[in-house]
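Backbones bend. Shown next:

***
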Amino acid sequence: MKATYQKYLLNFKRPSGTSRGVLNEKETWFIILEEKGKKGIGECGILRGLSADDRPDYEEKLKWTCANIHLGKDQLWEALLEFPSIQFGVEMAFQSLVSETPFLLFPSAFTQGKQNIDINGLVWMGEEQFMKQQIEEKLAQGFRCIKLKIGAIDFQKELDLLHFIRQNFDSNTIEIRVDANGAFDENIALHKLEQLAGYEIHSIEQPITKNHTDRMAELCKTTPIPIALDEELIGVFTWEEKEQILQKVRPQYIILKPSFVGGFRGTKEWIDLAEKYQIGWWITSALESNIGLNAIAQWTFLQQNVMPQGLGTGGLYTNNFDCPLEVADGQLLYNNALEWNVELL
């Protein structure tokens, strides 16, 4: 078996804002396996400044992985514990290699085009008018669950945007999720949660920065709206550490990005622990290209979670790969009339 890797820069159609800054491009890496005339591809989706494996030796570890590909998927997963995005790329590449085609990783009613996945519509941070425009577009596109990134503009303006939605749609019609990306000061976070509660919010992701687990545990106990841990899970590698954080913080939900938490195997560990402690969960992509999104979507469908998932990033880039994934009426669907176009293979 031969393994190679290559870097690929995804360019945003327009700068995309989070509370950590504005993104213009997204770096990703692909592992390509070749054996007996077949090829497999896996995406190592890293987000600089956020991923646990954003380290100076990242490319060196990719090189090592390709040189040691003979160790196989399971042994490599263990060896790459501190490189969750490479764990994911390796898992995906091996699954791709043994599949009927490189992109049909987990055949199901989803890949047959018979069933779709409910997803949330993501509203990026920006000026109030831009955010309002996005909200109107998402509602017009048939989304029944909208996720707003908050924490970058004036909080009152963000409340006004929520008011705008609730003036027109109640919580039975539109579910609202908000994502603070850790933007709230921990001393006034509860007050902000109380203000948000007036708008029938489904949940808030990561209200305060990670690693303040004592305060996060207090918030989860007293919050008027459910709290979902997101960044808090990054860099938590072992089963014991995962159980420890869930036992201590007791969040209402956890949000799982396979590129950040060790691929399918790492995600499944979190799911099993969440269900043990009656904690809800859903799966989200992390700005991967359509190659990574495709793998995540196919695997997510098999988990049979009826909540809207966070899988709608395919249209963000000018140089993404053509694929059968489409978004319609607030759902991700697999259109087999469309073909893949990936020159990497």
